[in-house]
Every structure is written in structure tokens, then in C-alpha cells.
Design a protein that fits this description.
Number of domains: 2
Order of helices and strands: EHEEHHEEEEHE
Number of strands: 8
Radius of gyration: 21 Å
Number of helices: 4
Strand content: 35-45%
Shape: elongated
Structural class: alpha+beta
Distance between the termini: 34 Å
Strand order of the largest sheet: 1-2-3
Helix content: 10-25%
Length: 154
């Protein structure tokens, strides 16, 4: 089977020989390769009890990785939907604007019927009044979908 993975990892440049000396029992340390090979030491779930460290060659890492401050729309939506991240565009000029994916209860009809569903929810503060606004069911513009300046809000 083939998979697409969505990970948030900590990564720092490190030659394979340095990685092998520093993490002799971690993933990939038992492979024979040139100690000068460029790559990254990758830490999954940093600081958690099930933290995992591995090494990845530079070319492979660069082919599948982007810094979280320059994501495409698809990467940002995946981070929002599957990792619970709050996202926004770098260029948004409103105060405290971000999007999150959450479970919402929507009431409709005269009888007060409701349905529970998941939706993208836009949060922001009105520039002029300072009031907080929430919009359930946010829709991206074509410019939002084509942009690669999406970031994760910490």
C-alpha cells in the first residue's frame, strides 16, 4: 500500500556520521552510508514519552518537507483537519484571524432541528469595533487556495 503522511516534526541539519555517533540505536543508524552524507535528524513527538528520532537524507527530506511558515493551502488544511492546528495566511490584515476545524451544532428549520457536523470555523476580531467574530462554514477564496503563505498559529 502507498500512503501520504502529514507530520509535524522538528528537524535540524546533520551529517549521517554525526547522527550515527549521537544516536547509535535510532532509526537508520545501522545503515551503511558515507558519514559525510547531508541530511536531517528528525524528532517525532518531541518531548513526549514516545519520542522517536531518525535520520533522513537531504534530498528526500527536501522533496517532502516544507517549513510550517510557508505552507500550501492543502498542507495547511491537512494540519488544521488532522492535527488540530489553527491556521492563517501571513497576509491577513485583521486582528487575531485564524481558522480551525471543529465539531459544530447547527440548528435549522422552524421546529428547532439540529445537526452535528464538522466545519472550518473562521475567528477574527473586527478592526473597527474590536468585537470578536466567528463564522461557521468558512469558505476559501481562489486566492487563498492558490497561496503558499499559510502558517500555523501557535
Amino acid at each position: 500500500m502507498k500512503y501520504i503522511r502529514v507530520n509535524h516534526v522538528d528537524a535540524e541539519p546533520m551529517a549521517f556520521g554525526e547522527f550515527k555517533a549521537k544516536f547509535p540505536k535510532s532509526g537508520g543508524a545501522n545503515v551503511e552510508r558515507d558519514p559525510a552524507d547531508e541530511g536531517y535528524v528528525i524528532t517525532y513527538r518531541k518531548g513526549e514519552p514516545n519520542e522517536y528520532v531518525s535520520w533522513c537524507p537531504k534530498a528526500e527530506f527536501d522533496a517532502v518537507s516544507r517549513p510550517i511558515d510557508v505552507m500550501t493551502f492543502g498542507q495547511a488544511i491537512d494540519a488544521c483537519r488532522y492535527r488540530g492546528a489553527k491556521i492563517q495566511r501571513k497576509g491577513w490584515n485583521g486582528i487575531d484571524q485564524y481558522i480551525e476545524y471543529r465539531c459544530v451544532n447547527i440548528e435549522y428549520g422552524e421546529e428547532g432541528k439540529s445537526v452535528t457536523s464538522f466545519a472550518f470555523v473562521f475567528h477574527g476580531r473586527n478592526i473597527h469595533t474590536g468585537e470578536r467574530n466567528v463564522q461557521v462554514g468558512w469558505l476559501a477564496s481562489q486566492a487563498d487556495m492558490a497561496a503558499d503563505d499559510w502558517v500555523i498559529v501557535e
